[in-house]
Amino acid sequence: MPAYHPQLALLVKEAPTGDGWLHEAKYDGYRIGARVVGDSVELLSRRDQDWTAAFPKVAIAVRKLGFESALIDGEVAVLEPSGKTSFQLLQNAFESGVASNAIYFVFDLLWLNGEDFSKLPLEERKARLAEIIGTGQSGLIRYASHVIGDGKAVHRRACSMGLEGIVSKRRDGIYRWAKRDPSWQKVKCVLRQEFVIGGFTDPEGSREGIGALLVGYYDERRELVYSGK
C-alpha cells in the first residue's frame, strides 16, 4: 500500500464546463487519509502526520467498515447547525485535544484489500466507494456526493448556499499522488466582511510578537459578535 501523499487541487478563477467534469462541495476542514491494515486504523494528515488520537470516533467508524486493507481520501470537518462545515468550529473542538464531533467526508478510494485503485478513473473509484459506505448523509462517515455538468452553475449555486466553494475533477482522471494537478480544480466563493480586532493571544513556541488576532463583527442589531482567531 502506498504512503498517503494526496493529490491537490489547482486554484482557478472559474469552474470548468462540460460533461467531462464532476463537481463536489469544498469542505472547510482538514484533509485526512484513512489507512487500514487489519484491525489497525491510522488517520493521516496531508504531511503524513498521525492524527488518529485527535479523531477517535472517526477511527472507530472506519474500523467498523471491516476492511482487510484500505486507503481512503477525504476531509474531516465539523458541521454548523445549518449543515455547512466550519473550520472555526473544528479549531474550537481541538481546544481539548480531541475533536469528538468531527465527521469524515470521503471522496476517493485509493486502495482496497490488496488492490491499487489509484489508476482507475475517478468515477469508477467513487462508484466503488459509494457501494461500500453508501450515499446517506448521516453518521460519522459520509460519502462526498457530486454533480456532473455546468461547473459555473454549480459554483453559483454553492456560493448562494453559503458554501466555501467547489472542487471540480476530471471524471476519467487517475489519482496523481503528491501533485497539484489541473485534473482537480478548486474555485472559492469570495465573500467580504469587515471585522473588528478586539484583542490578541500570546505567541507560542518560537513565534514572536503575537499569536493570533481575535476578531469580531457587528450583527444586524449592531452588537459586536466574536468571530474567531
Characterise this structure.
- The protein is globular, with a radius of gyration of 19 Å.
- By secondary structure, it is of the alpha+beta class.
- The longest helix has 12 residues, at 122-133.
- The protein has 4 helices and 14 strands.
- It has helices at residues 56-63, 87-93, 122-133, 151-160, and strands at 8-11, 21-25, 30-37, 40-45, 69-77, 103-112, 115-116, 141-143, 147-148, 165-170, 180-188, 196-200, 213-218, 224-228.
- Strands 3, 4, 5, 6, 7 and 8 form a 6-stranded mixed sheet that branches.
Short description:
The protein is of the alpha+beta class and 229 residues long.
Summary tags:
4 helices; globular; five-stranded mixed sheet; 229 residues; six-stranded mixed sheet; alpha+beta
Evaluate the radius of gyration. 19 Å
In DSSP terms (H or I, runs of 4 or more residues), the helix count works out at: 4
Q: In angstroms, what separates the terminal alpha carbons? A: 38 Å
Q: Could you tell me the mean pLDDT?
A: 91
Structural class by sheet pairing and helices: alpha+beta
Number of strands: 14
What proportion of the residues is helical, as a percent range? 10-25%
Taken in chain order, the helices and strands follow as: EEEEHEHEEHEEHEEEEE
What's the shape?
globular
Strand percentage: 25-35%
- Regions with little confidence, pLDDT below 50 for 5+ residues: none
Task: Write the SSE topology.
Layout: E1 8-11, E2 21-25, E3 30-37, E4 40-45, H1 56-63, E5 69-77, H2 87-93, E6 103-112, E7 115-116, H3 122-133, E8 141-143, E9 147-148, H4 151-160, E10 165-170, E11 180-188, E12 196-200, E13 213-218, E14 224-228
